[in-house]
Amino acid sequence: MPNPAVLAFVVGALPDPPARVLEVGAGDGRLAAALRELGHDVVAIDPGGEAPGVRQVALRDVDEPPASFDAAVAVISLHHVEPLEPSCRRLGELVRPGGPFAIDEMDVDRLDERAVRWWLDQRTRLGHERDKEAAEIVAEMRHHLHSFARMREALSPWFHAGEPVRGPYLHRWHLAPGLLAPEERLIAAGALPATGARLVAVRRPVR
Asked: Which of 11, 14, 61, 68 has the maximal Cβ count within 10 Å?
């Protein structure tokens, strides 16, 4: 079962079932399976995916007719997509005008040393050793992942993307359950940044 809050966000963004949905970066296929149970026709893709019902194909190489999807979704995956701009162009070709694209992400630009130190503290409590310092992890993440701003820019020729809703993310990053509320309290107190970002972009009309 996918994260209940993530599932609720995605379901709320999608058209009523049955809708044809493209999931970008489907991973273990749990979200796709949940959406199929709700009546959606889901094409789940992931170039590194091995789960049943997930096609091993990159976004830019999806072989489907133009405007053949009613909606798309990407959960913690768009920041890995390469090459980003051509892939977003392909997504724009695949989603019909007016179709939503639900994005759930970590904004690496907001990931700072405070956030990583807190995350490392929780990992240490789980028995993991600290093999890197917070500053090193921040630098690596910002080097390897697309920022949320860059993702929005790459989507902008094809999708209208307003401001994201910011919120917690660190509790979902390989940590034990039950850390959502502590993270929310620290964000509210200004002690941690809100590293999560959710956005529903809408496919622009074809001109």
From this structure: 14
